[in-house]
Write a structure and sequence with these properties.
263 residues, alpha+beta, Ribosomal Protein S5, domain 2, six-stranded mixed beta sheet, elongated
Amino acid sequence: MRCIYLDAMSRMKSNYIKKLSEEGKREDSRNAFDFRDIKIIKGLIDHAEGSAQVDIGDTRVIAGVKMVVESPHEDTPNEGNLVVSVTILPMAATEYESGPPSPEEIELSRVTDRGIRSAVSIDPASLFIEEGKVWSVYVDVYVLNYSGNMLDAASIAAMAALVNARVPEYKDGSVNYEKRDKKLNIKNIVTSTTFAKIGSSLFLDPNENEESAMDARLTVQVDDKEIRAMQKGLPGSFTMDEINKLIDVSFDKHKELKELIMK
């Protein structure tokens, strides 16, 4: 009985959102291409090399950076490593559980990693220490509360944590994690903007209810000059004109997102 009730409530919410979208409206009165309030707090985790908490509306994620001295890959002996992972904690929402990575977590990890890697936010050569030793940069992102648009929140948190990161001292074959004076060398800031299509309407930063009603989703990741990655979700489609419009919005939003990340 409870499941039937919840399904009925979900359909009612979805229908309400779709009706609003037909009128060009949103339930929280935002304009179509407005983000919810974004808050970034850096340096929360003392034992991490870098960290950041990002709130987009009620969606909250936290990211931590850990740097470890490891052997390079055989095919890139003079380059360090980057590993990005995203975990949705069970407390984030009732539908998420502990266990193997869910499809949502796999997508979040891949999209967040792809943006940073494609933009060469970290030059792998800058992570070289000496022959046979390089820095591996581990970026772990945790979704603490889900209220829509985890993709942008995870990407922004990962980028903000990397900007906040400091490199531990490496001397005479050992790492001093108590001394972290040097900033991690960040070449490019990549930002993420996710759009929902509901009927024929396009919206930036869908909240939880809008995500339940959307027909298609498009995430665009850009830096100052180039599109670095795109990810499309759900069966619905976008026209080329719509895609070009959303790319323009992404570049416009990049300026304010970059300023928040660097602040």
